Amino acid sequence: MSERVYVVLGAGPGLGLAVARRFAEEGYVAALATRTTDDAERLAATLRDEGHQAEGVGVDLTDPDDITAVVAGIGERHGRIDVLHFNPSAWREKDPLHLTVAELLEDVAFGAGALLPAVQAARPYLSAGARVLVTGSAAADKPSAAAASLGVQKAAVRNLVTSLDATLALDGIRAVAVQINGVLGKEGPFAPPPIAAAMWTAVSRADDDWTPHVPYDG
């Protein structure tokens, strides 16, 4: 129960797996949560095959009760959570003239609101030095009109991180949104490995150097 634990919600085979790998390389047990347990286990198996400790679990990020159960379950199994990484976002190709209020709220609930039950469930297992990490996006400042809800999600979750950091800092726990100011690619500065390295650097900072927002410009 002394091994540090990294949890990623909304893991995938690209950035989510790369960040989990980066933390696993630092000795963390990686818990990857995706929509289905089978998908999550395939990602975890990739890390285990590389010699890391990893587990996969299914989670419905549209269901606050399921988020609570999954995150609390990980905390109970390991006795701690050291990094909680919130990675999901909803992509809906609708401009503001066609996006409905219901669709906007659904997407914001998924890409921002789901962070609330995740942190609340993790809180009993977070101790001083623990971190909440959120994948941000340039869409928060430069939204695409073709997918209007994404920018709202990213602006909302960045704002929420500011409030979380101020609240958790009282107990030595910090929150940060790493804003990726570029388009994800397979190679180059916006490929998953260098972004994962930047996320590791962001959460490794001392409290004296802390800011709740870190831009990644490649």
From TrEMBL:
Keyword list, A-Z: Oxidoreductase
GO function term, MF aspect, one: oxidoreductase activity
The family database entries (Pfam families) matched by this protein are listed as: adh_short
- Give a yes or no for keyword Oxidoreductase in this entry: yes
Is Oxidoreductase one of the keywords UniProt gives this record?
A: yes
The record, for Gene3D superfamilies, names: NAD(P)-binding Rossmann-like Domain
Under InterPro entries, the record lists:
NAD(P)-bd_dom_sf, SDR_fam
What is the similarity comment for this entry?
Belongs to the short-chain dehydrogenases/reductases (SDR) family.
Question: PANTHER family attached here?
Answer: 5-KETO-D-GLUCONATE 5-REDUCTASE, ALCOHOL DEHYDROGENASE, PUTATIVE (AFU_ORTHOLOGUE AFUA_3G03445)-RELATED
Q: What is this protein called?
A: SDR family NAD(P)-dependent oxidoreductase
Q: Which organism is it from?
A: Nocardioides immobilis
From the broadest rank down, the organism's phylogenetic lineage runs: Bacteria, Bacillati, Actinomycetota, Actinomycetes, Propionibacteriales
